[in-house]
Amino acid sequence: MVVVAKDLMSRKSLSILNINYRYQLFAALTVQLITFTHGISTGWLSPTLFHLQNDHTAPDFTLSVTEISWIGSLFGLGSLLGNIMFGVLLDRIGRKWCMYMLALPVICAWFLIYFAKTHVYLYVARFLIGITGGGNYVVVPIFISEIADPSIRGALSSMAMLMLSFGILVGYIMSTYLDYYVNPFIIVIFPLLYLIAATQFPETPQHLLRKHKISDARESFKFYRNVPKTVEANSMPDFAIVNYLSDIFAHTGTDIDPNTCTIIMGVVQIFGTCFSMIVVDRVGRKVLLLCSAGGTALGYTSFGIYVKFASSEIKLQYNWLPLVIMTFVIFATSIGLLAQVFTVIVETLPIKVRSVGTSFSMAALSCMVFVALKLFPELMEKYGLDNLMFGCTAICVVGFLYVLIFLKETKGKLLDK
């Protein structure tokens, strides 16, 4: 296998469309169906909460600020459970069985959303969606890192954030324009398709080697690397912003429809992730993370200054400015903080502790997500949107300094050791 890997590395290409990488690409696209589903489930929330607070449409119950904060934040607790549970199961039952299990919580969640009679149904549904999301952030990056050639690993890993961003956009659009009871019937199709498609791909070579299944590992390696016969003979604030975008735009006083602004943000997020996917294997992970953290801090600062100091006349004349600033924030976030964090975590950890380490890292992230989603609407109501933006700026500055001082570049790193 070492000889095969060296031969393949000698003819590597940066294009993920290279014929030698087609099975890696197909497998990556397949697992991203569950990421896409998770994105829809995430984007669905913001316009839906806005409707439930203002339109009094189905389902027939109203939500308080506290209930809204729990609906948002229980996602984080579910994600924490998903991080831990799938982190434990990855090395016990394998990557493939964990991939199958990812679909079950989100399928149950959408049935609960359809039959919701009280806010408790939404509590449980968001918790289940969080389990799938938390497991997704552990299972999918490790699966892709173990099947991908080093020359395209960054692009394939960034594809996760592209599909997440696309899913969030679809979720924004569906929950804005479709009836509450239509959404579950459409969305549940995607995890079902994912379950069927996932059966077509073998377990990763690294996991099979850990289980001492040498022959199966060799066949898996040849499948994913598309080895021809000749070679065969001879490798947190941002979650809160996404979930509460409609409310944020409503607080700025802009007369542009908040849900329309939210949809625009979804489009921008896709462009940012595409940009990251194109350049990541050329410029490296660290450069993108620095640009992302610095740009996001600048955007949050600008947004906070606008909200705090702009007069009523300025807000009336320049009501488009919040949309422009938040567009910049979402783009900056998408090129690094969203697109590359999971890639860097997997590439930094050695193979012996990769599953446990990724699980621990994602569990810590889920705790932060829970705190951010729980406190965001309450802090916005108590301290104002401007001070909240300045707080987000401080967090981004700390992240920028950490990446600058401590993070080592992982571009092209071999993950077999």
TrEMBL record:
What GO molecular function terms would the record report? transmembrane transporter activity
How is this protein situated with respect to the membrane?
Multi-pass membrane protein
Asked if Transmembrane is a keyword of the record, the answer is yes
Residue ranges annotated as transmembrane are 21-40, 68-90, 122-144, 156-174, 180-201, 287-307, 319-346, 358-376, 388-407
SUPFAM superfamilies, per the entry: MFS general substrate transporter
Q: Which residues form the Major facilitator superfamily (MFS) profile domain?
A: 27-411
Give the keywords, sorted: Cell membrane, Membrane, Sugar transport, Transmembrane, Transmembrane helix, Transport
Query: Which Gene Ontology cellular-component terms appear in the entry?
Result: plasma membrane
For the keyword Transport, the answer is yes
Q: Name one Pfam family in it.
A: Sugar_tr
User: PROSITE patterns under this entry?
Assistant: MFS, SUGAR_TRANSPORT_1, SUGAR_TRANSPORT_2
- Compartments (UniProt record): Cell membrane
Q: What is this protein called?
A: Major facilitator superfamily (MFS) profile domain-containing protein
Q: What organism, scientifically named, is this protein from?
A: Glossina morsitans morsitans (Savannah tsetse fly)
